[in-house]
Amino acid sequence: MIPFACIAQQRQPATVDPMTPELTNVVIDTLSKALIANYVFTDKAQVMSKYLHAQLAKGVYRNIKDPQAFAEQIAADLQTACPDLHMGFHYNARLAQMGPPPMRGPDPHQDSLRNADMAEHNFMFTASEILPGNVGYIKFNGFVDPTPSAVQTVTAAFRFVQHTKAIIIDLRENHGGSPEMVKQVLSYFFAEKTRVNDIIVPNRRDTSKGWTDPTATDGILLRMPVYVLTSSETVSAAEDLAYAMQATKRGTIAGEKTAGGSHPVGPVFLGHGFVAGIPFAHTYNIHTGTEWEGTGVIPEIAIKASALLDEVNSTLFPNSWFANQQKAADRPIAPAEVQAYLGTYDGGLKFYTKDGAFYCENPERGGQVFKLRYISPGFYQLDENVQVKFGQQQGSASGMQFYWSDGGISFKQKMQ
Hints:
Elements: H1 3-8, H2 21-38, H3 42-57, H4 67-81, E1 88-91, H5 93-98, H6 108-120, E2 125-131, E3 135-140, H7 148-160, E4 166-170, H8 179-187, E5 197-201, E6 206-208, E7 226-230, H9 237-247, E8 251-255, E9 265-271, E10 274-279, E11 282-285, E12 301-302, H10 309-316, H11 321-327, H12 335-338, E13 343-345, E14 349-354, E15 357-362, E16 368-371, E17 373-376, E18 379-381, E19 386-394, E20 397-404, E21 409-413
Parallel strand pairs: 3-4, 4-7, 7-8, 8-12
Antiparallel strand pairs: 1-10, 2-3, 5-6, 5-11, 9-10, 13-14, 14-15, 15-16, 17-18, 18-19, 19-20, 20-21
Helix pairs in contact: 2-3, 3-4, 8-9, 10-11
């Protein structure tokens, strides 16, 4: 998403020309003009420009000879003048020797290589599974361009969880990417076209309206509750998805406040090996009238980023099968406490007490005997797959409910 970052990471040659007062002046003047011409908010660009020139006048850069150190100081000063997570400033010695890369049109060969690399990483999707209690779990760590192969992968991931009772989307390690893929992912959750986050480019007086597209999901419509997991590392396009879910009230955000970076960015080559990553646009949500730049997306449910899935599941669904399994405990059972539950039920299930414990003999499992574990009054863990609640009614019959780990519920009538 941020090409200048890739450029900055290329291997540097052994020799680097030092900074001179003349070069420092040229770079700051060129950067100031680029900010005013390209930065998303002109007034803030003026603030950054004035701050850099004030730093120059105070001699802050006078003794910095290493271009890398100079770039780091400029980057820090830009953030001081106007905090913006997408703002960047880098030095690349190869560019100093070769000049900035020429502007080219689309390169099919490079596109093919990039798509192959994304395919090797499963288009950033790392998990699509079913958690206990029939909860879907999807994790992906980036938003790639929505190529046909990438969209097939996204569709397959959501198709796998389409019959679950709820879905968790884990963006705790997601650092952003393509806003078009954000709209693709959102489209699975809305029955009709829905306006989400727009992208506004003030200098071009251009607005790209963000709409979901139900026709792009291969017929998959996910109506169940959605929970989006976030962390302080969740940024950019990942925040785009979380913010859209929250603003439209389609999803609940759980986790930590996100990083707070919403401005799309592009590289500006300044010469002499310096590259500025300048945010040129901002987002806007018609439901809130604002964006998440600088504030982040605030979760409704607080969960530590380090929380394991068991803890996440129990926190989000405190009355779920899985949460109840976590609560189940061995404890002494007084006969009077379970007297009304003792006897034989459908399928030959026999419940009895012995030595202060509550047992079930199950002929459907070869006469195996299970020791019940206490959850709450009348509610017990029977085995690894079933929880039982006694004293239930179905029509004129009395008995107990079976709660299965896959989300199913069945009734067992008491025979004697």
